[in-house]
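Human: I'm a chemist; would you kindly supply sequence and structure tokens for a protein?

Assistant:
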Amino acid sequence: MEGVVGGGGRRISVSPRPCSGRRIVAKKRSCCGGGVGGFVNSVKKLQRREISSKRDRGFSMSNAQERFRNFRLQEEYDTHDPKDPSALELPCLRKRSKITEIVATQDIVFALTQSGVCAAFSRETNQRICFLNTSPVEVIRTLFYNKNNESLITVTAHGSDNYSSLTCRSIGIEYIRRGQLDAAFALCESDWPGFIEFDNVNGKVLTYSAQDSMYKVFDLKNYTMLYSISDKNVQEIKISLGIMLLICSKASSHVPLKILSIEDGTVLKSFNHLLYRNKRVNFIEQFNEKLLVKQENENLQILDVRTFELTEVSRSEFVTPSAFIFLYEKQLFLAFRNRTVAVWNFRGELVTSFEDNLLWHPDCSMNNIYITNDHNLIISYCKADSDDSLSEGNCSINVSSILTGKCLAKIRASNSFPMEKECSCVDNCSGSSCNSRKRKHVSRIKSTVAEALEEITALYYNEERNEIFTGNERGLVHVWSN
């Protein structure tokens, strides 16, 4: 499967294999309470914000450090349950499978495994609500939370057609909370897309059917089809804020390009971009009015499609990355290469190189990193600093500032002991014999912190609840918070 990280979208392609992989130090507190020391501490934070030469950057960094201070292992969920009755109906449940994707919204956590099983867990009860698979021959390829109508979209493939096509289903979060999976309804019933891309930035869905070479654009709010594009010369479509870039079949010395309005498909501009002959095109990307083109062993070209002003970045300075993430809030983009991340602007200038942020996985998967909605922080699964004598194990979860590249917080085995679950009784508590109905849930954590940090294959941050979720090779989901 193929993951598209430009433009905030994600693309899922058909694969005939049902179990193939997815494409897509804090300061010490001076006071524990809110007394005089706490008041002075707050005043100092406000002073730093006011005197900062970089507007509110100093305050936001301090705020981020406080937000992720003292994160601990809080809970553990297991997607593998051979004793569950569903295991008799879902063959993929009979063996453990790694977590490939996590989505968390409100009080529900969704975990998708490589075998195609998706489980929903409640953060209120810490119990599994249900499995989202509806038949023994259905495998779920990916998940998408539709914030427009508070629903979950599952993209599935079926053994009935040898997993050769994709189908989509939508169900409201409230129905999942109640376990009423029969409330789900199919999307694009008349189409069998070869790929489907969800575009959260513009609130659109793009599908492609290889049978008739037809692209279709749907509205994420009500799933109505807006328009279709039928052009056999189109080789690729890139989605950006408000527009789509159609990349047509390359000629010997140029590539024909079209820019369309994403709302109604109107052609806004058509032009040819000159290419070096006999040079492979590494990538063509679109970000608003900026077109990024890179050919093999050539400089990066940044073209303003309004004025046709061209900026070039030396090939020695900008080496072809494996993936991009465009940051619309900051007018910047992230470039991933060889486990490293760098921030660039559209003047061709390197803005940030990250310190202590060597990604664990060599391939950039959006499932292993999280960018906050304000585009200020990147949360990633990293290799621990080999020079850190306090580090236990060789992996950590890092929270870094995108604008400065500094590591603001780090979750590792040496500083993240599991949180003890205590009784909520105030008086006359007898410990394990307490029979209070208000007694807090006893944790099911079986993994040590070091084990929970090993072999992480998926990562997600719930910004509303300030919780990080990680999934690993053993099909376990771990909850981290303070």
The longest helix spans residues 36-51. Confidence is low (pLDDT under 50) at residues 1-9, 11-55, 422-441. The two ends are 35 Å apart (CA to CA).
